[in-house]
Amino acid sequence: MAKQRFRDIKQGRVAPLESKQKVRKTKRLRARLGSRLKAAITDSFMLVMPLMYGVFYAVFGGREGFSQHMLLGWIYILIPLIIIQILFMSRSKEGQTPGMRAYNLALVDLKTGTKPETGVIIYRQMLTLFSLVTFGWLTMFFRKDRRTLHELLSGTTLEQLPEKAPELRTQTP
User: Fold this and answer.
1) How are beta strands 105-109 and 156-160 bridged, if at all?
2) CA atoms of 154 and 29, how far apart (whole Å)
3) Which of 5, 11, 80, 100 supports an S-S bond with 105, CB 3.0-4.6 Å?
4) Residues facing 157 on adjacent strands
5) Does residue 99 contact residue 117 with C-beta atoms inside 8 Å?
6) Distance in angstroms (rounded) separating the CA atoms of residues 51 and 76
7) d(CA 155, CA 111)
8) Are 58 and 97 in contact (CB under 8 A)?
9) Taking the model in full, what pTM does it have?
10) Phi-psi category of 155—alpha, beta or left, where left has phi over 0 and alpha has psi -120 to 50?
């Protein structure tokens, strides 16, 4: 009996029975805490440091001038930083800043599962300032999904992209 059913299935006369094993859905990987922090540090050196240098020396004439007008100086640093990050996130294919790209992280809208629209990215970056001032970034240490306050309010998250296979290069003699 079992042999006959096998032959029937093999020859296409009978449909095979459904497997009782659970079908695994492809689960998206949330960005790990270490990757998030490394991406933030990379962005701080690649984006914030040149802005700080420009503000320190071009606007205030040195560190002493910056220390006298520190609040104004940080406004001069943070507003261009947010604009640059919005430009990077909205122009890139997966909503990445240079630090996110270095560690294969992508900004994802939770509703659609794709890159957020530009308005959502702008809203998220404005909330980032709020999160920075109110220590909302600390929520990532206490939540299982590692989302920060600005990600919770904007409906976005950072996800780990799969590693890209190295391209094979053929050498021509």
Assistant:
1) antiparallel
2) 19
3) 100
4) 108
5) no
6) 8
7) 7
8) no
9) 0.73
10) left
Scan for tokens 């992209």, then name that residue.
161
Rounded distance, CA 149 to CA 132, Å? 9
Residues 146-172, mean pLDDT to the nearest whole number: 79
| Residue with token string 């992280």 | 105
Compute the average pLDDT of residues 73-90: 93
Amino acid residing at 61: G
Per-residue pLDDT reduced to its tens digit, 49-58: 999 999 999 9
What token pair was written down for 70?
A: 């520190």
**Counting every residue, how long is the chain?**
173
Q: Reduce the DSSP state of residue 3 to 3 states and report it.
A: helix
Q: Report the distance separating Cα 160 and Cα 107, nearest Å.
A: 9
Mean pLDDT of 25-41: 81
Tokens of 89: 């996130």
Please state, for a pLDDT cut of 90, what percent of the chain lies above it: 54
